[in-house]
Amino acid sequence: MAPFAGSPGDLSAAVTRHLRDFLARRSLDAAGLDARFADEVIDRLTSFVLDGGKRMRPTFAWWGWRAAGGAPEGPAATATLRAASALELVQTFALVQDDVMDGSALRRGRPTLHMEFADEHRSAAWSGESGRYGASMAVLAADLALVWAEEMFTDALDGLPDARERARVPWRAMHTEMVVGQFMDLRSQASGEETESLPLRIGRLKTAAYSVERPLHLGAAIAGASEEVVSGLRRYGAAVGCAYQLRDDLLDLYGDPDRTGKPIGGDLREGKRTLLLVLGLRTARERADAETVRTLRSAVGDPGLTETDVRAIAGILADLGAKDAVERRLGDLVDEATRCLAATPVAPVACRELQRLAHDTVTRTY
């Protein structure tokens, strides 16, 4: 299977082909163990992986490979892209788990996996509590995605043992960083901590590391990149990844649900102290506006917020200047990424593409 013809769309399609091929083989093996497991769990998991997603993480891994001098085609290039495609299974694990923990109803414009399982349980009038069944089955599916991610990554680089060992450094680090970031996110929701540094730290570990920084590191490691190249790509990746998270925070309040695939205000209802919210609260306190502080704090963690309520909170934060402040921070991060890339000796074709990706990743519209 050739890597891809050259365009971003071709790259995404090539990743999907690798995933489809791997999932078809593993699904066949699992179906031999239990046909119901294949029909009820694997089919849903396969649909989740193949029918959605921007293939952002494999894309950054591919350009990490190219930035470090990796060839655009050939057996090593194909192996690299196949290994990079395993990142989609890691993301599936993270998204399904995150949806369960947050109690989210929609993902990519369709019911979340735990909601699908719960609906199946409810429709069949099975014994027990539908919500608990749905959450348990979704966690099981997420676990399978993570197991298969390890298999796909390992098998892809079977013919490149030295590259595989180099790549295991970012691969392993990424998994731990994801878990720590999720822990910090859950804990901050429970504790109500409102320091400005915390959402940035959470964004770095929970989103930036596994979305951009470590995928770049992974591809570069497979190519045998120098420490200088790896360091520069990681700095670029951390900045772009954090900017990506800030854009997500803005889209959660100001986005179009038809484009984002989920209702607005999810972060508010779940009790997340995003940088947007923290900055708004700080300004309200500085203005000694106790009523606004109470209004904002009462909205955080309120699952009963209507769309009208969310739009009102979004307007308050905009009036406080928090929205503009986050946009400025986001712009600063993209500028930082550009500087890091310019100072790193990477292949020119990769430099151009990474500049484009930095822009496209963070300029998603509302």
Write a concise keyword list for the protein shown above.
366 residues, mainly alpha, Farnesyl Diphosphate Synthase, two-stranded antiparallel sheet, 17 helices, 2 strands, 77% helix, globular
In short:
The protein has 366 residues and is mainly α. It has 17 helices and two strands. It has helices at residues 8-31, 35-50, 56-67, 75-85, 87-102, 113-124, 130-156, 161-191, 197-222, 227-254, 257-260, 266-270, 275-286, 290-299, 307-319, 322-342, 348-362; strands spanning 106-107, 110-111.
Secondary-structure element string: HHHHHEEHHHHHHHHHHHH
What percentage of residues falls in helices of 4 or more residues?
Answer: over 70%
Uncertain spans = none
Name the CATH superfamily classification.
Answer: Farnesyl Diphosphate Synthase
Kindly report the spatial arrangement of strands forming the biggest sheet: 1-2
Tell me the domain tally.
Answer: 1
CATH architecture: Orthogonal Bundle
Number of helices: 17
Mean pLDDT: 94
Global morphology: globular
CATH top level label = Mainly Alpha
- In this structure, how is the largest beta sheet organized? 2 strands, antiparallel
